[in-house]
Amino acid sequence: MLTHPLENLDPAQSVQVLPRHLAGPGAVDPRVVWAFPFEEGWPFAQTDAGTAAAFSPCLRLQTTFDPQPGKPGRGTWTINAHKAPFTPPAWRVTFDATTPAEMLHDIHSELLDLYLEDRYSDQDRLFQDETAPYEAYALLLTRGWSHAVKTDGTQTFLTPEGLGGVRHRRFQRAGLAGSGWVPQ
Questions:
Q1: From CA 164, how far away is CA 184, in angstroms rounded?
Q2: CA distances from 81 to 74, 114, 125 (A)
Q3: Is the pTM of this model over 0.70?
Q4: What are phi and psi of 38, to 5 degrees?
Q5: Which of 48, 91, 125, 150 has fewest C-beta within 10 Å?
């Protein structure tokens, strides 16, 4: 029989816990997580079951929440960016529902800033990042993250304490080629 590691602790024993584990993932209210100006024409819809979606007015930036109550992570947050409406995503980021709401809000705030900057400039920062992948790798490795590479080119980076990580992989499907980061 397996026991939980926090059972039968000595009263004098100290335990280190990250604040997010004490507080949990936070509110699962998409309107709180998504930092979009809904009053300025950003469509928002939510079903009675909790599934929700929000879109930029031009439909290029989309984000969804699927509660999936029967799954261990209790849901999925997904962000898709499309170079044109109704085309396959140019990139996608997915988080499970255990991701802190504050982190999701910050990510959506940054995306909104990029989106708004792109609207009033000749740049396309949502799709044309000039940062080479090795520049991101170097930042992780110099901070003690571990690195493993599979034969298919998937690279996994784990935090020094092993409590989180990201994967970077190249893909090719339906004639599109690219690469992407996935939370581990």
A1: 6
A2: 24, 12, 11
A3: no
A4: -60, -30
A5: 48
pLDDT tens track for 106-165: 888 988 888 888 777 777 777 776 667 677 788 888 989 988 888 887 888 888 887 777
For tokens 């998937």, what's the residue? 154
d(CA 88, CA 175): 11
With left for phi above 0 and alpha for psi between -120 and 50, is residue 110 left, alpha or beta? alpha
- The Cα 30–Cα 53 span in angstroms is 8
Question: In a 3-state reduction of DSSP, which class is residue 176?
Answer: strand
Write the single-letter amino acid at 109: S
**Residue 90 CB-density burial (10 A; 0-12 exposed, 13-18 middle, 19+ buried):** middle
